[in-house]
Amino acid sequence: KQRLDFNMSFPETVAIGDQLQIVAPVSYLFSDPGDRRCPQYVFLDGAMTKTIPTCSANIISWHLMDESIPALSPVRFMVQVQNPPRTPTINLFQVRQVDSNGTRKSSRMLEGYEIVPELASPVITQDPSSLPCRIDVNLVTGLACEGTGS
Q1: Are strands 59-63 and 42-46 parallel, antiparallel or unpaired?
Q2: pLDDT: which is higher, 139 or 115
Q3: What is the pTM for the complete model shown?
Q4: Is 81 exposed, middle or buried (0-12, 13-18, 19+ CB in 10 A)?
Q5: E-assigned strands of the chain?
Q6: Does residue 140 surpass a pLDDT of 90?
Q7: CA distance 116 to 141
Q8: Exposure pattern of 45-70 as b/e (b: 16+ CB <10 Å)?
Q9: Cα–Cα distance between 63 and 85 in angstroms, integer?
């Protein structure tokens, strides 16, 4: 699980009654199954101080009931995300603003990040080498070559 740092702003005022959503690519998870809480959500900066998000699978959303966000004002937060086992073919995060009637006011698609898989239960073993550590090389002297000062 990773903690992602988001910084977003919107071209129009986010009014009371509006909803904000971030839809992650399929197979990313913002929450545990059946739990609407957003693990390790931390509001960091900006105008959205009162609204607590809800999470479901790959969506984090806010329904603004007691506050609004002025146009172009930044909002920054962190939230925990469970990465998929590999980078999805379609790896786009969508940020969208929807009014109280369900009409989309703004949206943007952002390229996701590449997933570097963790090794699953790696095992390290020490096997004897089938080759000698150093190959003897006979030069003109007829003696084996040796390094000096090493």
Answers
A1: unpaired
A2: 115
A3: 0.73
A4: buried
A5: 2-8, 19-23, 42-46, 54-56, 59-63, 75-81, 92-98, 104-111
A6: no
A7: 53
A8: ebbbeebebbbeebbbbbbbeeeebe
A9: 31
